[in-house]
Specification:
11% of the residues lie in helices and 27% in strands. It contains six helices and 23 strands. The strands form six sheets. It has a five-stranded mixed sheet with strand order 4-3-12-7-8. A hairpin with a 5-residue loop joins strand 22 and strand 23. The N terminus is likely disordered.
């Protein structure tokens, strides 16, 4: 994409004090110039008037026994893409990344991916079987699992197909759709190693095969080394029981690895001496290369980032002046150590500000504040992780892998901000 304008002009980052002054000035101008538009605010509720909500008693404490968002936030929901949806029972919907901040995804907004619909399990009937190359095959109830020592860990979960539609060019106009197959929550559960140790592993044990209790019987092969390292059997997320669509009452957690391995509604773990090459690791979830051959066992979700605001679903509405650019970065290899952003399509890069907890295999929030002069922008972010890995461009990925795959696309995303504040998904070279 060739631009005739010079979006890099007038974008030097001012200090915090000048930003605050500019913001106050902009607020004063808005008030004095009467810039309140119809449908945006009711003048009768604005200072110096006393707003309606201050005149009357509100709802009591028992009005909503389970808290729900404000009615004014009803648009903040998961969404699907019709042309990607062959069947509601075997499809995906997307986290509204552009509507969120921080690094924790609310339970009701975590993206869904199903292969046979949501299994509705009764917790008293739930059982987890351990069999195969173990000394003692065992069956655990949910209460049994809760008697093991438990841990709380914050991890991201990303579908291997996240950004998959972008391999052949910009297609989906919104970061919810290009990057929304990811979420990050606090899992509470039992390290898998404790459960396997209880059954006793035989000396020739090398792999495990977790299996789901859903209609698809979702299963994947996982090396025993990973299972004994940081995998968990989780029964809570963000403090409460798993949601049904997230695997209630128990699921597998495989930190940093592709989401299809995080088997939901976990019913069985078989221990073996070689991989099973099950349906979901042969018919799909392999990386098809340019020459027609497929790479198997590309489990790790490599370093990735995306600017969530501004983005196509979050256009710039405030006009010229101070702007806060915000985004997310993550790595299946560990912590994010740095994120750079560019507002001119890569001509100049600036180090963004990482804010909030920095945990391995979790989302990281970054910000970059600058003064927008109203010119066109080409926004990109580039993340680095603690291993030294640097997020690649899409062209660099395609040079190695071609365009046949739909998995593991962690290329740099570009948003084109127009002078009127609207934003499009584009690619530049």
């Amino acid at each position: 994409m060739t631009r005739s304008s010079k979006p890099e002009e007038g974008l030097a980052s001012p200090g915090r004090r000048s930003l605050l002054k500019a913001g106050l000035a902009a607020g004063s101008l808005a008030a004095t110039a009467g810039l309140v538009r119809a449908g945006e605010a009711n003048p009768e509720n604005l200072p110096p008037n006393v707003a309606d909500w201050s005149r009357y008693l509100g709802a009591g404490v028992d009005a909503a026994p389970y808290g729900v968002p404000s009615e004014h936030e009803a648009h903040v929901v998961r969404r699907s893409v019709e042309w990607l949806t062959a069947s509601r029972e075997s499809s995906v919907n997307f986290t509204p990344l552009h509507e969120l901040d921080g690094i924790i995804t609310p339970n009701g907004l975590c993206f869904e991916r199903h292969h046979g619909g949501v299994a509705e399990m009764t917790p008293t009937d739930y059982r987890l079987m351990i069999n195969g190359l173990v000394e003692t095959p065992l069956i655990f109830t949910l209460d049994d699992l809760k008697r093991f020592p438990r841990e709380n860990r914050l991890y991201f979960l990303e579908c291997a197909a996240n950004s998959g539609m972008e391999w052949r060019g910009a297609q989906l106009n919104g970061c919810q759709f290009t990057h929304g197959m990811v979420h990050c929550v606090m899992y509470t559960g039992v390290p898998l190693k404790y459960i396997l140790e209880e059954a006793g592993l035989k000396t020739n044990a090398k792999w495990i095969m977790p299996e789901g209790g859903d209609a698809s019987g979702m299963n994947r092969s996982i090396p025993l080394e990973k299972a004994l390292d940081d995998c968990m059997v989780a029964f809570k997320m963000n403090g409460e029981a798993l949601r049904p669509e997230q695997g209630y009452p128990a699921r597998l957690v495989v930190p940093g690895w592709e989401g299809n391995m995080w088997v939901k509604w976990l019913r069985r773990i078989e221990v073996g001496d070689e991989p099973w090459h099950a349906r979901e690791e042969t018919s799909k979830y392999t990386d098809l290369m340019e020459n027609g051959k497929a790479r198997r066992f590309t489990w790790v979700m490599d370093t990735k980032s995306v600017i969530t605001n501004p983005s196509p679903q979050a256009p710039v509405t405030h006009g010229k002046g101070p702007m806060v650019l915000s985004g997310l970065a993550w790595s299946g290899n560990g912590r994010i150590t740095r994120v750079d952003v560019t507002v001119d399509g890569g001509k100049n890069w600036h180090e963004a500000r990482l804010d909030g907890p920095s945990l391995p295999k979790a989302l990281h929030r970054f910000y970059y504040e600058f003064d927008w002069d109203g010119s066109e922008l080409l926004l990109q972010s580039r993340a680095y992780d603690e291993t030294g890995y640097v997020q690649p461009t899409k062209d660099a990925l395609r040079a190695v892998r071609g365009t046949n795959s739909i998995y593991h696309n962690n290329g740099i995303q570009t948003w084109y901000v127009k002078a009127d504040g609207s934003v499009e998904n584009v690619e530049i070279s």
